[in-house]
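Annex B, item 7. Sequence and structure tokens for protein A, then protein B.
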Amino acid sequence: MSLLQAILLGIIQGLTEFLPVSSSGHLVIFQNIFHINTDGGMLFDIMLHLGTLVAVITVYRRDIKKMLIETIKIGIDIVKNIKTWIYNRKFDEALRYKRIIHNNYRKFVVLILVSTIPTAIIGYTAKSLVEAAGKTLIVPGVCLLITGVLLLVSEISEEGHKIPKDVSYSSGFFIGIAQGLATLPGLSRSGTTIAACLLGGFDRRFAVKYSFIMSIPAILGAAVLELKDVGKEAVSGSLVFNCVIGAAVAAVAGYICIKLMLKIVKNKKLKGFAFYCFAIGTVAIIAHFVI
């Protein structure tokens, strides 16, 4: 893999990770059509995703900081409640317990945890299936068509106004399932989860925020699972350099696209991406039978 190829794939990753057109699908299509060999493919893939992770953290740093603080406070309150329970049992008292979920950020934290559970289960159990799907053009092609349908459906959905305090945990679990299924190449993670949020009645701005912040544990979890396989690959100094450059390019492109997606979803401009997915998906399917 040359430096130019690393930059190209970094741009594709950064653009397509947050725009609802599937980063994995585009990477598979480009690598299959142009026969790009990423050498240490697993390491390069991890670095690209970490680059986009940096973009999410940068854009939503204030929200993430508040969520981390509330997570610590939740832990402290749980410990206090355990102590209260022990005291009440020991001395036959009825001291009140602290209310754990009492603001939007605490509810947001728990919702993200609930969403992460099905994503982790699906991602872990379907890992070999996803890897096999990435070796052909037919799967990303069909999944891109499905992504287009989801975007069109979400575009005509009723305007929602839900923020964390209004969202049920069952909705969070359903969105987590959607994210887990989106590990298939061509099924856009952002497109699928944003569509699920909009269909669930989320406020449009919150739907984007939920989708992107929810990606943080998913990306970290996938990176941890893939790290064990990196040692099996031959890693050279030039590969490491290309990985770092690719990740940096993905981070910059990703940052720009997150800002862009906030405007796109707010202004109901997903239809164009739906037709784009239809076009690229059709090209991939045709290429599968021609190449």
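Protein B:
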Amino acid sequence: MIYEKPVKALMHDFARERLKSGQVFSKAEPVQWFAERFPKIKRATVMIHVDAMSVNAANERKHHRSVRPGSGHDLFFKLGKDQYRLWNREGDPPPVYAETMLAGEPLDGTIDYEAQGEDGVEPVTQREFAFEKDLRNYLSKNLHLIEPGLQLYEDEGVSGLEYPAGGRFIDILAVDKGGHYVVVELKVSRGYERTIGQILRYMGWIRQNLSAGEPVRGVIVASSISDDLKIAASLVADLSLAEYELSLTIRQAN
């Protein structure tokens, strides 16, 4: 914690100072408020907290692991893209929490682009979703397998695991031993050249909103890397490719 209060508590201070009942605001307002009073708190961290503290922003709240009943995150109500107001406890629907959501089913109407096959991304099966989740969780705890010194990003209760980035989610946001950001994109099966566009978008978002213009690297991890992806990646200096391999050993227990 950078200051005496965590970001969620400071967000309540912002609301008391700047907002009236029914007043509509955008993320730019708390971003400016924090920049003036608490400049060490990152812009992206403020934006993520606005969504995590919006009682009906289901997709964002299910990725913010500290959001639970009584955690102090129930503050705003999301009206639309970048439009919010204070949550009306009497008139608005009750808050949604991760433990009450069905896995893989957005409750706020947000499209899961990967599941829908948008932007040239192949639709994947429910089994593959489960596999990707297991792979993501394992690698987040063993990032040294990708690169020595690599660690999961953590900041003010915001984890680099499924890190929110402009309406989508980075599989893993990490920090290398030099303190630079590394975006890790996972593919449970084969990695194709169209993955380049996906990870470059994430890298650009992190550079614009989190790294203050400092270089951001990317790593694509897949069970196999296509030749087309290797050719495309060869033109991107800060992008590397890696293949994973699973093994299983059986031994007698009696």
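Comment on protein B: The radius of gyration is 20 Å.
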